[in-house]
Amino acid sequence: MIRIRSTSPQSSTLLATVQYILIYCALSLGGMALPIYIGADLFLVSILISCSIYLFFIKKEEFIGTTFSYFIGALSISLLLPILFSDLSLGTSLRIICILLLIYTTIHIDKRHVLQRFLQIAYLLAAISIILFFLTYIWGFNVVSPLFPYLLPSYSEGMLYSYTSPVYNFVFLHSDRNCGPFGEPGQFQCMLTVALYFSLFHSRLIAKNRQKKYIAILTIALLTTLSTSGYIAFIFIIGCYLLHPQNYKNKKIKRYFLTGLCGVILFLTVTPLGHNFIEKAVYDKIFNTEKHNIDFTQGTGGARTKSITEVIELIEKEPFSLAGLGYDRMKSLNLEGCAGILSLFIAIGIFPFSILFGFSFWCIYHKSQSRWDILIRILLIINMGLGQPNIMNPALFFMVFYSYLCLKSNSVPFKRAIIQHATYK
């Protein structure tokens, strides 16, 4: 039987506030505005120092000697090789370690309530994004222009790219897509799909009335991103959920999904907005510019598709690239648009990459509810890694490590398991 590790019956207000802040900071490292407001380097160093003080001094006895601490140590040592012998920057390595330490710290502070608080933040950001997206989609950016003087402008190639705020980004390039509080829709969909995964696969830890609201809002927000990766992830989640052992499924939720699926299909095939969704999320990704032939190398997703063959060719020509090239060298080789998982592999090298994902997949297998729980998490990692340029997304690794850090006993992955209902606060 899988049980939640025991914690104090009630979390203090201060503890809850700190955990909310840490969850938001972790999500911000996935591409939100907070690091820009504070300063990216200052934000990263502050997080790294705070987590180090907490883990290596305040909670030294609980952290030192754990499997996770050995993992962090091995990964840190392995990252020294590409730092010393390639163009991999110290900042890139520190960012990877910082994300992992922040996730561990965030979960460790209050394991009983961290999932509920993560979902509350994701739900709130998704709800705000839906309102502001439809306002700007229907009436244009003029309806929110009075807010712009109070927001932080960002530029790309000398041109105004967006106005950013802590809860929503007004991105002019993606005016017909919901970016939420992130810089582009692909980053937003990662948080949404992870939250949707938790809402379905860890439903016994969530109040039923809240679960329905979470699923509805997260799904609507995900559909408005027009992210192909997000749509693929959504299909994976629903498919694995419906194939999940019957004891884990809520029959009402299943009916809601089937009804909602029919509604979505009707919306996409009948309405002009639905046609635009299909064109942006499907046709532009897989067809050439004339829209006559399927061509994965010329659509809007072509850069990441071509990167797969380019990385293979690079490894064949330069086998030592497996030791890690660093992002600066990759940029000089025109590989900066590379798929995220391949980009990270070439940047940090085979040894750190193997330690990072080897441990991640071990955590997924070691403590999971069923084979479908294992499969969906692996599929979401692969989908994010091949569909987006940055795979080091904190939301993704929160999904990877949550069960490992919060579930007490070893699971039996290929048998049904029962999760003890946690007190919902």
Structure write-up:
The chain is mostly helical and 425 residues long. The protein has one domain (13-143, 184-249, 301-406). The chain is 64% helix and 3% strand. The longest helix has 26 residues, at 114-139. It is globular, with a radius of gyration of 21 Å.
Q: What's the order of the H and E elements?
A: HHHHHHHEEEHHHHHHHHHHH
Q: What global shape is seen?
A: globular
Beta-strand proportion: under 5%
Q: Roughly how many Å apart are the termini?
A: 23 Å
Number of strands: 3
Poorly predicted tracts of residues: 1-9, 410-425
Task: Give the quaternary arrangement of the chains.
Answer: single chain
Q: Structural class of the secondary structure composition?
A: mainly alpha
Strand order of the largest sheet: 1-2-3
Q: How large is the radius of gyration? A: 21 Å
Largest sheet composition = 3 strands, antiparallel
How many domains is the backbone divided into? 1
How many helical stretches?
18
Q: Could you estimate the helical fraction of the residues in percent?
A: 55-70%
Mean pLDDT: 83
